[in-house]
Write a structure and sequence with these properties.
Helix content: 25-40%
Distance between the termini: 29 Å
Radius of gyration: 25 Å
Strand content: 15-25%
Bound molecules: 6-O-phosphono-alpha-D-glucopyranose
Strand order of the largest sheet: 3-2-4-1-10-9-11-15
Structural class: alpha/beta
Largest sheet: 8 strands, antiparallel
Length: 613
C-alpha cells in the first residue's frame, strides 16, 4: 500500500523525507509527493508521477525545498489512476489543511456530497482529498483546533486510514491519526520522525511509539502527545524495535509470502467493503455495470492465467450454480488463438492481478475486437487491462510482492462472489433475502480466515514431515477441484515438489498408477453432496499405500477414520469454501519451501508479471 513519512526538527526536511520514502519503495507505488513547511510561510507542495527518482530530480534531492518540517507520501492507486493530480499530499483550496493518507475511506462519496453542498470543490479522484476537506470544514466550523477537527472527521469517516496533517495555523506541528492502518512515531533528541512503516525511520531511532486505533498525535520538535477520539490525553510508553532493516520491510515476518498470507483478511474485507453498501447491498455503480446489462448476458467466458485462472475455475461453479448462466473458463494463452465463438451477449471476464499479463491482455483485445462486453478484475489501477476493459472491478489487495500470489487471489474470489450474487439477484435466480443472507455470510470470511491462520503451527509441523516428498497429489470434486488446482500450483511454485491436482473421479483413469507407499494425497472435501464420493477416492489411494491428508469443514469428523492428518476449516456457504480451504494449502506450500531452504518469495524461473507470451 501507500507509504507515509514525516519529519519535524531543525534540519532541512525534504532530503530526510526522500530518504525515508526510498526505504518504502519495496512496497510498490506509482507516484510520490512532499509537503514542506518553512516557518510561517505557506506550505510548499511538489508531486511527481512514476518513480521516486522523478520527485528527487524535481526537488534537487530535496535541497530545493527549504523548511525543517514536512510530510511525504508514495501512492499506490486505489481511487483514481496514477497521476500527479491524484498523488498526495492533498490540500484545501486555501492550503489551510494539507495531508497525506494511507488506507481506504469507504464512505467518501457520501462525505464528498456533503462537502460539495458546503461549497468545496474537488480536483482529484481520490478519497484522500475528501478527508482533507472534511478536516478543513470541521476546523473552520467549530474552531476547536487541529485535534478537535481531526477527531470530528474521524467520527464521520468509515474505513481505514493513517493520516498525517499540517495546519496553516500550526507551523511547528504535524498531526497524525490512524485506524486500521499502521503508523509509528520515533523521537531522537529534538527531532521527530513519523512513518507508516518501521524501515523508514530505523536509521534514526529504534525507540518508537505506536499510535492506537482511533487515536490522534500532535508532533512537535522532539515531542509527541497523544489523544483519544474524545480529545482526552493518552499516556504512552515507547517500544524498542529489535528487527533488522530486512525484517522491518516484511513487517516482522520472515518473508513477503507469509506476510501477504496474513494480509488476506484485510484484502478480503477491503474488497467486500468496496462494493457492499452500509445497508448490506451490492453496488456495482463504480463498475458502470447496469441491471439491464446483467439481464442481457447470455453466457460468460472467464479468461486468465495462473492463479487467476483458478479463480475462474471456482467462479464457473459459483456463477453457474447461482445464476444459471453458462460459463466457460479458459486459459488466456488458449483463448487468444482458438477463434472463440462469442455471441453478442457474451460477457468476457478477464482476471489479472497485475493487469499486464501479455496473454490476458491479448485475450481482452481479441474479445473487444469481436465486439463483446468485457469486464476486468484487476488489482493494479491504471494497468493496461484496467484501462482497456469496458468495466473494471478492482481487487483491494494492495501491492503484492511475493511472486506466488496469495492475497490477490483471495481478493479476486471475492469479486467473483459479489458479481455472482448480484447477477443472480437481478436475474431473479435468488431472492433479495437470499442475497442479503449471502452478503452477511461473505462478511464473516475475514474472521474465519483469521481463525485458520491462528492454527498455522500444525501445518508447519506437517510440512516438516513431508519436505522430502517427491510427488504430491491433490484431489477434489466441484469447487473442491478448483481449490486443489490452486493448492497444487502453490505447492510446486514455491517448494519445487512435483504435484498434480485431479478431479477425484478422474483419478482412476491414470494418476492412481503413480500412487505408491507413502505418497501424499491431499483430498479437499468441503462440499456436502460430494463428501462421500471424494472420501471413497481417498480410500482407493490409501489401499495403494498413500498417506492421506483431508481438508474439510468442522463437523465432518468421520474423515478421521480414513485420513492420517486432517485440517478443518470453519463452516460457510458452500460457494465460498475456496476462500477458506486455500489458506492451509498456501501455508503448506510456504512451509515446505522454507523447510527446504528455498527462496520462497522469488522462486526460480518464475516472474511476478509475465509480460511476454
Ligand atoms: C504469474 C504469477 C502468478 C499469477 C500469473 C497471472 O505466473 O507468478 O502468481 O497468477 O502470473 O498473473 P496476473 O497478474 O495476470 O494475475
Amino acid at each position: 500500500m501507500c507509504g507515509i513519512v514525516g519529519f519535524n526538527g531543525y534540519r532541512q526536511a525534504a532530503p530526510i523525507l526522500l530518504e525515508g520514502l526510498s526505504k518504502l519503495e519495496y512496497r510498490g507505488y506509482d507516484s510520490a509527493g512532499l509537503a514542506v513547511r518553512n516557518g510561517t510561510a505557506d506550505v510548499e507542495l511538489v508531486k511527481a508521477k512514476g518513480r521516486l527518482r522523478a520527485l528527487y530530480e524535481k526537488t534537487n534531492g530535496g535541497m530545493a525545498m527549504e523548511g525543517t518540517l514536512g510530510i511525504g507520501h508514495t501512492r499506490w492507486a486505489t481511487h483514481g489512476e496514477p497521476s500527479e493530480t491524484n498523488a498526495h499530499p492533498h490540500c484545501s483550496d486555501d492550503r489551510n489543511v494539507v495531508a497525506v493518507h494511507n488506507g481506504i475511506i469507504e464512505n467518501y462519496k457520501e462525505l464528498q456530497e456533503k462537502l460539495l453542498r458546503n461549497g468545496y470543490r474537488f480536483y482529484s479522484q481520490t478519497d484522500t482529498e475528501v478527508a482533507v476537506k472534511l478536516i478543513d470544514y470541521y476546523f473552520k466550523k467549530y474552531k476547536g483546533g487541529p485535534v478537535d477537527a481531526i477527531a470530528r472527521a474521524m467520527m464521520r469517516i468509515r474505513g481505514s486510514y493513517a493520516l498525517a496533517v499540517l495546519f496553516k495555523d500550526c507551523p511547528d506541528e504535524i498531526y497524525v491519526a490512524r485506524k486500521d492502518s499502521p503508523m509509528v512515531i520515533g523521537l531522537a533528541g529534538d527531532e521527530t520522525y513519523m512513518a507508516s512503516d518501521v524501515p523508514a525511520i530505523l536509521k534514526y531511532t529504534r525507540s518508537v511509539y505506536y499510535i492506537g486505533n482511533r487515536e490522534i498525535a500532535r508532533l512537535g520538535k522532539g515531542t509527541a502527545e497523544f489523544f483519544n477520539i474524545d480529545r482526552e490525553p493518552v499516556e504512552k510508553e515507547p517500544t524498542e524495535i529489535k528487527w533488522d532493516a530486512e525484517a522491518a520491510e516484511k513487517g516482522g515476518f520472515e518473508h513477503f509470502m507469509i506476510k501477504e498470507i496474513h494480509e488476506q483478511p484485510k484484502a478480503v474485507r477491503d474488497t467486500i467493503n468496496s462494493a457492499v453498501t452500509e445497508e448490506g447491498t451490492i453496488d456495482l455503480s463504480a463498475l458502470q455495470f447496469t441491471d439491464e446489462m446483467i439481464r442481457n448476458i447470455s453466457n460468460i467466458q472467464i479468461v486468465a492465467c495462473g492463479s487467476a485462472y483458478h479463480v475462474g475455475v471456482a467462479g464457473q461453479y459459483v456463477f453457474e450454480d447461482l445464476c444459471r448462466i453458462p460459463v466457460r473458463v479458459e486459459l488466456a494463452s488458449e483463448f487468444r488463438y482458438r477463434n472463440p465463438i462469442l455471441d453478442p451477449d457474451t460477457l468476457v471476464i478477464i482476471i489479472s492481478q497485475s493487469g499486464e499479463t501479455a496473454d490476458s491482455l491479448a485475450a481482452l483485445r481479441e474479445a473487444k475486437e469481436r465486439g463483446v462486453r468485457t469486464l476486468g478484475i484487476v488489482n493494479v489501477i491504471g494497468s493496461s487491462i484496467a484501462r482497456e476493459a469496458d468495466h473494471v472491478f478492482y481487487t483491494m489487495a494492495g501491492p503484492e510482492i511475493a511472486v506466488a500470489t496469495t492475497k490477490a487471489y483471495s481478493a479476486q474470489l471475492i469479486c467473483i462472489y459479489l458479481l455472482a450474487i448480484r447477477f443472480a439477484a437481478v436475474r431473479g435466480n435468488i431472492t433479495e433475502e437470499k442475497a442479503a443472507e449471502m452478503i452477511a455470510e461473505l462478511r464473516t470470511l475475514p474472521d474465519k480466515i483469521e481463525r485458520i491462520l491462528e492454527d498455522k503451527e500444525r501445518i508447519q509441523w506437517f510440512a516438516a514431515k513431508f519436505s522430502t516428498a517427491r510427488d504430491i497429489f491433490f484431489i477434489g470434486r466441484g469447487i473442491d477441484y478448483a481449490i486443489t488446482l490452486e493448492g497444487s500450483l502453490k505447492m510446486k511454485e514455491v517448494s519445487y515438489i512435483h504435484s498434480e491436482a485431479y478431479a477425484a473421479g478422474e483419478l482412476k483413469h491414470g494418476t492412481i498408477s503413480l500412487v505408491e507407499d507413502g505418497t501424499l494425497v491431499i483430498g479437499s472435501l468441503t462440499q456436502k453432496e460430494l463428501y462421500e464420493k471424494t472420501l471413497s477416492n481417498m480410500v482407493e489411494c490409501k489401499s495403494r499405500g498413500a498417506y492421506l491428508m483431508g481438508l474439510t469443514n468442522y463437523g465432518n469428523y468421520s474423515i478421521e477414520d480414513t485420513a492420517d492428518f486432517t485440517v478443518y476449516i470453519p463452516r460457510t456457504d458452500p460457494h465460498y469454501t475456496t476462500s477458506l480451504a486455500v489458506i492451509p494449502l498456501q501455508l503448506l506450500g510456504y512451509y515446505l519451501s522454507v523447510t527446504k531452504g528455498l527462496n520462497v518469495d522469488k522462486p526460480r524461473n518464475l516472474a511476478k508479471s509475465v509480460t511476454v507470451e
